[in-house]
Write a structure and sequence with these properties.
Length: about 200
């Protein structure tokens, strides 16, 4: 597996990303504004989790991870250099040191989930047939986001992606269930009261 290194070049005011052979594999000028709906290359850091069956006590995760005797394994998060879709709002994306919400793509075959959106090679700048994984939405520093591949400007595709995000977050089904129960009772409750009570 390729180990990726992120660095900042102050002379060119650019963020660079390298693989283990020190070959530059991606680039973004600091002044290149990140926008919602863009597909960009990004570096998703590797994450390890304890390889154990028991529940780790609250506050003890650091001790478990630093113990060399603790068996560790890779998490199921998408990792390393890959295309991502920018989904955070543009006001957030302009923050110089802010975190950007992204959904990663994979070119590997996956078992179908309702949180997946499928793309053909060539669509929106993607080089391979790809799956957008809404269940893997992540927040990463803006310095981990690099060159732009494309931009999704198709409303039908964006609505499909929004639908998969609603499913993943769970609140969509909660709202639908609550609305159905409310309608059965014939009672329309003010949303401000719902939020405040």
């Amino acid at each position: 597996m390729t180990e990726s290194i992120v660095s900042e070049n102050f002379k060119t005011k650019a963020y660079l990303i390298y693989n283990s052979t020190n070959r530059e594999v991606s680039f973004r000028n600091k002044n290149n504004e990140i926008k919602c709906g863009e597909i960009r290359m990004a570096y998703l850091p590797e994450v390890e989790v304890p390889d154990c069956d028991e529940l780790i006590p609250l506050g003890q995760i650091g001790k478990y991870m630093s113990d060399p005797l603790t068996r560790k394994k890779r998490s199921h998060k998408q990792q390393n250099i890959r295309p991502v879709l920018i989904v955070s709002n543009n006001a957030n994306n302009k923050a110089p040191e802010g975190n950007i919400h992204v959904i990663p793509f994979t070119s590997r075959e996956k078992k179908y989930l309702p949180t997946h959106t499928y793309f053909k090679a060539g669509q929106f700048g993607l080089k391979e047939d790809s799956i957008l994984l809404a269940e893997c939405e992540d927040s990463i520093p803006s310095c981990y986001i690099y060159d732009r591949i494309g931009f999704i400007d198709n409303v039908d595709v964006l609505e499909r992606i929004q639908y998969t995000m609603d499913i993943q977050k769970g609140i969509y089904s909660m709202i639908s269930k609550m609305k159905n129960e409310r309608n059965k009772d014939g009672f329309q409750k003010d949303i401000r009261r719902v939020c405040c009570n």
